[in-house]
Amino acid sequence: MDIQTLRRGILALTGVVAGLALWLLEDAALRGAVAEPLTLPLTTFVLVFFGALMAMTGPLRLRPAALAALPLGLVVAVLMAVAATRYGSAAEFRQQGLHWIAGFLIASLPLPYLIAFGMTGGTAYPALFTASWQLVVRAAAGWIFAGLVWGVIWLADAALALVGLGFLDWVMTEGGPLPGMATGAMLGVGLAVAHELSDLLSPLVILRLLRLLTLPVLTVMILFLVALPVRGLSQLPGGVSATAVLLALAMAAAGLIAVVIDQSEDEESRSPALRIAARVMAGLLPLPVALAGFALAERVGQHGWTPERVFAALAVVAGAGYGLAYLAAVLRGSGWTGHLRQANRLLAPMVAGLAMLWLTPVINAEAISSRSQLARYEAGGIPPADLDLDALDRWGLPGDRVLERLASLAALPDQAALAQRLAARAAGGEAEVLVMEEDAEALLSDLRAVMPLQPPGATATRDLLLTAIPPVELQSWIDACRTPLPGTERAGCVFVVGEFWTAEPGEEGMILLREPSGFVRYEGLGMMEGKVHRLSVGALSGMLPDRAEGEALIAALQDTPAALTPAPLNMLGVAGGLLLLP
């Protein structure tokens, strides 16, 4: 048996064993044969151990790869088990994506170092650079191959199902470990073949293509920094984090700089334009990172800590490490690319170390966030209505402790609003917050005061139609109206009254609300059978104006009532009327 066939068989068998092990763990957990606290670390160990083993087998022989993957799997499994103690159950912990991102970083970042050390006995930058990009190419090829094979299986099942011989449904529902074992085998074969053809599947093409993005990204960075003093950081669409955008920009810049300087002076780009662009980007890199930190600090000051913001803070720390190291390399003058390569060699372990801290009690994001929200409430920074009780409920045991503290505070004489909020949540959830009649009338009064009306004299119709909006929803309408359209002082809403449905008595209302996400929400209200009903709003073009177009429409409707025109439609006069809609 030749070495290629042997390697393919070994990796395919490794994938089969991995798929079987995962299925056995899941089955044992469902039957209660494995205690719930053990399920998470065991599953994590299987994923990391076999994933690292398959990733390193090829560049390394099976035994050295296994010896390197074993401690890596144990470390990640232990850290995940420690982090899971923040939650009442493993099921709650599994829903927290940030912990899995940290685990992935801890499991993947050491792989190039382990491969380079196993192949050369050291961790020189050229070996690390080559190992990193070959890992990316091999993993992509392996998963693409597995996906293609499943596509062929699906096609075969579809063809055989035409003659009553379909099998895929049985395999997926009754086949037990077969789907996982098959996927593991396909992935193993794909990885093996990708390693065999490493000369043909060289990362060189990807690296050369990525270099072409250096000048565009530098242009974006410069334009952003030039426009910042004029525009500020407040122009992003609602729901888009300025911190995330800035960190993504910094990460893209750092990656492209590394691609331009490559693994050594012999391999780095010979283009003067690209080398200058990379050097300028390296010098500018601290700026977007610093701005990301500023944006995050502003957000925390306004709304307190959340696990996502704690994670973003760690990302800012990592970005600061890269930014300062790159700037120092540039300032050292000649030989800056060599200094930058050495910095890259040390910065990846720093990121892995921060990810490890995230999973330890040193950085308990849930506790930090829960204490932050409690402190803001006790200091009078947020009213009871703005407390995010659902978020506290998601933040594990620290969140539960804060909820208990809030429950004890609610017993105080001056905490009637908090007591009402907690009682409403206990009775039926956040969607059924109790609102007294006088509170509903006060909300309607506030809404009428801030919502532009067209035509301005249609107050009676507006007031009648607004009675259909439940009090719990009125506050979101008020918030939309009080939030100005971007770059203006105009209200973010408008109420348009008109005879939209000629077959029904009275006038109807169309409401446009700009939501915090930046999208425009359309509502319709009208009288039917003596009652106010909510109606759908559509566009003959098929697409309602949204984002900037929707904002412009809100502004235009605030200025002038739009003329009502008949719709160019006919319908079949059966079954209540049948229409063709776009």
How would you briefly describe this protein structure?
By secondary structure, the protein is mostly helical.
Which helices and strands appear, and what pairs or packs with what?
Blueprint: H1 3-31, H2 36-56, H3 62-84, H4 90-94, H5 97-108, H6 111-120, H7 125-161, H8 168-174, H9 178-196, H10 204-211, H11 214-231, H12 242-261, H13 272-284, H14 286-303, H15 307-331, H16 336-358, H17 365-378, H18 389-394, H19 396-409, H20 416-428, H21 437-450, E1 453-454, H22 459-466, H23 471-482, E2 493-498, E3 508-514, E4 520-528, E5 531-535, H24 547-559
Parallel strand pairs: 1-2
Antiparallel strand pairs: 2-3, 3-4, 4-5
Helix pairs in contact: 1-2, 1-9, 2-3, 3-5, 5-16, 6-7, 7-9, 10-12, 11-12, 11-13, 12-13, 12-14, 12-15, 13-15, 14-15, 15-16, 15-17, 17-19, 21-23
Give the fraction of residues assigned to helices.
55-70%
Report the count of strand segments: 5
- Radius of gyration (Å): 30 Å
Residue-averaged pLDDT: 88
Question: Strand percentage, roughly?
Answer: under 5%
- What is the number of domains? 4
Shape: globular
Main sheet properties = 5 strands, mixed
Please give the alpha-carbon distance between the first and last residues. Answer: 62 Å
Report on this model:
- The chain has helices spanning 3-31, 36-56, 62-84, 90-94, 97-108, 111-120, 125-161, 168-174, 178-196, 204-211, 214-231, 242-261, 272-284, 286-303, 307-331, 336-358, 365-378, 389-394, 396-409, 416-428, 437-450, 459-466, 471-482, 547-559; strands at residues 453-454, 493-498, 508-514, 520-528, 531-535.
- By secondary structure, the chain is mainly alpha-helical.
- The chain folds into four domains: 3-202, no CATH class; 210-363, no CATH class; 365-432, no CATH class; 437-559, no CATH class.
- The protein has a five-stranded mixed sheet with strand order 1-2-3-4-5, sandwiched between helices.
- Strand 4 and strand 5 (531-535) form a beta hairpin.
- The chain is globular.
- Mean pLDDT is 88; it is low at 429-438.
